[in-house]
Structures are given as C-alpha cells and as structure tokens.
Amino acid sequence: MSSGSAIRGSRVGSSPMRPDERTEPAPRRLVNYFCAAGHDSGIWFAADAPAPDTWDCPRCGQPAGLDQQAPPGRLRAEPYKSHLAYVKERRSEEDGAAILEEALAKLRQRRGRV
Ligand SMILES: [Zn+2]
Fold first, then answer.
1. Distance from residue 84's CA to the centre of ligand 1 (Å)
2. Residue 49 C-alpha to ligand 1 middle, in angstroms?
3. Measured CA distances, 21 to 18, 24, 80, 113 (Å)
4. pLDDT tens-digit readout, 9-61
5. Span 53-90, pLDDT tens digits
C-alpha cells in the first residue's frame, strides 16, 4: 500500500477528480469556413456533430461557407440584376438610340439648311 502523501501528490498533479473519464477529450474536428471578405476561420465542432453549411465569420460577422471558391457572401456581392434593372437598361439603350437618331436628324437638317 502506498503512503497517503503519494496519493495526495498525484491528486494535486492531475486536477480532474476522475482522470479515467477526463483524459480522453471529446473527439473534435476543425472545420474551415470562408467568408466573402477572404477570412478563413477554423471552427471546432464535435466530431459527431454535422458542421453547418454556413457559419458567421468570427472576424467580420458575414456568413461564411465551407467552399473557399464560393463563400456565401460573394453571391450577394455579385451585381444582381432585377427585372427592373433590365428594363431600365433596355430603356436607356432605346433612349440613347432615339437621342442619337434625333441628334443625327438635327445635324442633317442643319447641314441641309447651311
Ligand atoms: Zn470575414
């Protein structure tokens, strides 16, 4: 039988009361998330827990995704053309053409007069 002091010493050295339960840490895995700002953040998840598709970037708070090539924030950053935008664009093109036509007509008129 070992002396009491030896038992006490081992207890102080290893703080967990039950080393047999504590020595094996819960299995974890590091999952990298990428945000549109170019941050890559390693987030630890329990190994048995499925990693979510998106995670808020700890640095900038934007949604970060698992795919570095396609972070979720980038989709928003891309210019999204609404139907109205298309209409406006076409409008301005038509207007531009009309204005050009008008200008040419005036030019021709002027040339004809002069
Ligand atoms: Zn970020």
1. 31
2. 23
3. 6, 7, 54, 102
4. 555 555 556 556 666 778 999 999 999 999 999 999 999 989 999 999 999 99
5. 999 999 999 999 999 998 886 555 455 667 777 667 77
Residues near ion ligand 1 (Cβ under 5 Å) = 35, 37, 39, 57, 59-60
Closest CA relative to residue 43, chosen from 53, 29, 63? 29
3-state class percentages of the chain: helix first, strand second, coil last, to nearest 5 = 45, 20, 35
- At position 3, the amino acid (one-letter code) is S
Residue type for position 74: R
Please answer whether residues 53 and 43 qualify as being in contact, where contact means their C-beta atoms are separated by less than 8 angstroms: no
**Token couple for 77:** 């950053």
Between the CA of 64 and the centroid of ligand 1 the distance, in Å, is 7
pTM: 0.44
